[in-house]
User: Fold this.
Amino acid sequence: MLKQAMNGILSEVEAEELYGAFDQIGNIIILRIPDSLLHKRKTIGEVLLDKVKTARSVYAQSSPVEGDFRIRKLELLAGEDKTETEYKEHGCRFKIDVEKTFFSPRLSTERDRIAELIQEGETIINMFGGVGMFSIVAAKKKKCHVYNIDINPDAARLCSENILLNKLKGTVESIEGDAAKVIEERLVEVGDRVLMLLPERSDEFLDSAIKAAKKKAIIHYYCHIHAEKKDQVPALAPQHFLSVVKVKSEILGAKIVRPVGPRFYQAVVDAAISK
Assistant:
């Protein structure tokens, strides 16, 4: 759609350099601009704002997602300079600040999959829960209790607001803090299910996830996998998990969540552990 929108604005060579996809979160569009087109970024933003009638702001992502708070720098290209918006998914409403908190609309299918796997009455520990997307979608569908932990105070605040925005079958508790410390202080052997939604640091926090899990529990372990071929990932991800986990584990399944670069994938391993 982005390349189509630029017909007549960019040359054929320039259009080929442009990334074809962008994210729309509520009324905000976020896109990446290649270095070769930075001089035309404002024009690209203005054209896109005109073409997408539901958008009120267009931002360029000017830095990678980084740091403990998992945030990125954004540059306004067109429209209102307002980074907070409302996003709807799976019958839920969410307040999101796209600059102060981490959020990806591309995880929508995975959020629904996890919610369907959760059993009635379970206690879930979401170690890196952000504004509460996975947690609230789960509690919307199932009568469960979710501890949504995030070290980013803006994410924890918005999670608390999002809990109040939605009518839930279950309950969600927003906790601000470092997941490892929170688990050590109050959530040892509490979780029937533990979500590890920080693929770049999952190995670092795996011992904490195991500590949070009951004697028998399920861990959803997210990781990044390099693979020459896409169909290798569902085998490589469990191999990696089994090489780092320190308790008895049974692999229940593994899949690609999304591609994140050339021959580079975010994957999830569903594992039943016994301590």
